[in-house]
Amino acid sequence: MGKKSVWALMAVMSLLFTSLAIPALAADTIKIGMYLPLTGAVAAYGSMAYEGIKIANEMEPEVLGKKIELVLVDTKSDKIEAANAMTRLLEKEKVVAVIGEAISGNSMAGNPISEAAKIPTVSPSATNPLVNQGKNYAFRACFIDPVQGEVAARFARNELKAQTAAVIIDIGQDYCVGLGNFFIKEFVKLGGKIVSTTYIQTGDQDFSAQLSAVQAAKPDIIYAPNYYTEDALMAKQARDLGIKQPILTGDGAQADPLLEIGGAAVEDMYFTGHFHKQAANTDRAKEYIKRFEEKNKKDADAFGALGADSYFLLVDAIKRAGTTDGTKVRDALAATKDFKGVSGTISMGENGNPIKSMVINKVEKGKFIYVTTINP
After folding, report:
1. What's the CATH code of the domain at 226?
2. Is residue 234 part of a domain?
3. Are β-strands 121-123 and 97-100 bridged in parallel, bridged antiparallel, or unpaired?
4. Which of 8, 54, 135, 140 is the most buried (most CB within 10 A)?
């Protein structure tokens, strides 16, 4: 064989090995998608969840001997963008599973797409029961609104000793409407009386009409299961009007912007919540909190913990399935039992809804303080 033939053969072999190496390298990673709101009205939820997911990925960066590659798409706090983000993750990025969305309405926009593709999803914080209803591939790391509403009502009656309540609900959010309705039903069942029910819209800044109704009704407490911006502004205006009743809300208000916007007005506001570091008792939670606070220079928060648990639940399911096949990972997720997560011990119940404990938190001296744990 002449020199030219040898060089030609070597060139062919080089191209062959290069072409073989490309898919081999691609096969060394497993893609997990994330569709979260990083901009828009509820950007704080997505940003906090993403912070937690990144810490979880640092703690467990591989599964089945392969590196996990995280692929993030911003939903811009919008339902249409959420559906588009899910489509991109499945069709272009070819992810094997998806974390998200952060809120219920956006999750309901994305879940039918992943369901049709038989790709499992785990939402950190979409609490509306309709999110997973009729879905085989949709799961979540958070408890659902009926449980949260019922616990809030019991806490209001038994711990705050409330006989009457005024309810202020954001009708622009499925989450807020659901939580308000479940609270009302349980509060009345427990012998309480709803003396005022008024409504707001996401983005409202003037709550004078709703607060006038509160002043006239003179309730023992105000239940406002809304997102952080509206609750903070409402609390400021309530205190300015001399309304001093305790304000009780849900997990959607427990975000740092509530403290920044509300200031002194949100002192002593109570929350039904998913997590507080003082209640964390698993080894995974302790390591997560240490890493999170060293990296972010702030307290570990609930949405970060739920983001981390969404990641850990998926990785654990892929390990137990021994494959990234969507149906087998889905079956492993459904079989999750006594998983020691960041936000507590998690067993997966019906419709992809976890069975887990709940915490009550409150604002005290500008921080979220742990009050108590309520077990399932």
Report:
1. 3.40.50.2300
2. yes
3. parallel
4. 140
Backbone φ and ψ for 198, nearest 5 degrees, come out as -130, 165
CA nearest 30: which of 54, 62, 3, 8? 62
Task: Name the helix (H) or strand (E) containing 194.
Answer: strand 193-200
User: Coil, helix or strand for 278?
Assistant: helix
pLDDT for 27 equals: 67
pTM: 0.85
Instruction: Give the Cα separation of 84 and 78 in Å (integer).
Output: 10
Residue 232 domain-assigned (yes or no) = yes
- Tokens 């409407």: give the residue: 177
Q: Residue 78 is encoded by which pair of tokens?
A: 């919008």
pLDDT at 174: 86
Do 302 and 262 fall within a single domain?
no
User: Taking all residues of the chain, what is their mean pLDDT, rounded to a whole number?
Assistant: 93
In terms of domains, do 226 and 256 share one? yes
The pLDDT score that the predictor gives to residue 22 is 39
What is the tally of structural domains in the chain?
2
CB-count burial class (<10 Å; 0-12, 13-18, 19+) for 70: middle
What is the domain extent for residue 285? Answer: 26-143+279-356
| pLDDT recorded at residue 6 | 42
One domain, residues 138 and 54: yes
Question: What residues of the chain score a pLDDT lower than 50?
Answer: 3-26
Let me know if 199 is exposed, middle or buried by CB neighbors in 10 A (0-12, 13-18, 19+). Answer: middle
Instruction: Decide if 41 contacts 107 (C-beta within 8 A).
Output: no
Work out the angle at residue 81's Cα, subtended by the Cα atoms of residues 79 and 82, and round it to the nearest 5 degrees.
60
Find residue 69's DSSP bridge partners. Answer: 31
CB 275 within 8 A of CB 359: yes
Give the pLDDT confidence score for residue 351 in this predicted structure: 96
- Same domain (yes/no): 171, 262: yes
pLDDT digits (tens, 9 = 90+) for 318-333: 999 999 999 999 999 9
Residue with tokens 């002593």: 268
